[in-house]
Amino acid sequence: MHDENTREIFRKYIYELKPFVIFSFFAFVLSTMAGYAYYSSAPDYALDSLGGLEELAEMLQDLSAIEIMLFIFVNNAAKMFFAVLLGFALGVIPFGFLIMNGFIIGIFVHYQTIESGPLFVIAGLTPHGIIEIPMLIISSAIGMKIGYAGLQAIRSKPFDLKTEVIRGIRFYLHWLLPLIFLAAVIETFITPMVIYLLTGL
Fold first, then answer.
1. Burial letters for 68-99: b for 16+ Cβ neighbours within 10 Å, e otherwise?
2. Range of the domain at 139
């Protein structure tokens, strides 16, 4: 359990993070819409963007459920951690990470909607996506907040970049990492059940 002082520190951090989260949310939505539209205009080229997902699915085929869950957790946790940590490069890397993921999700949603129907997409993304996508947005927002601190430091404004990085990492470890783990558990054990119950697949 966190004491009141710790909770107050995190509440202050969340307040400061809010504009970056709002910006990240709209950037994610727009990039997802762009990916969805791109599949309509150039489906063959768009599917090339999903090559990484196909390779990932092949890698997971021979793993046990626990191994799949741990792989998903480590993969997502590492990517989101680096989105936070590499934010000091003026926020460019976390912004690119967010846009790329939104774009690929848009393509994937459009493709799966055509191939398997909207119910399959809802069943396949909603259970873990309601946790994982906000974590993606927030981790990118933290990275961009750190990037803003770096920009202020370059402009000789009173901003402690080292302290900002430490605050971002602490927030990630205390709040985001446990939820990323929960999303991996849901994706491995709950999402397949929801898909089967709703679609029979």
1. bbebbbeebbeebbebbbbbbeebebbbebbb
2. 4-199
- Secondary structure (3-state) at 168: helix
Beta-sheet strands, E only, within 123-172: none
Phi first, then psi: what are they for 64, rounded to 5°? -75, 170
The low-confidence residues of the chain, meaning pLDDT below 50, are none
Assign 3-state DSSP to the chain and report helix, strand, coil percentages, each to 5.
Answer: 90, 0, 10
Give pairs for 75-79: CB < 8 Å, separation 24+.
76/132, 76/135, 76/180, 76/183, 76/184, 77/177, 77/180, 77/181
User: What's the confidence (pLDDT) of residue 88?
Assistant: 84
92: its two tokens: 């460019």
> Could you give the number of structural domains in the chain?
1
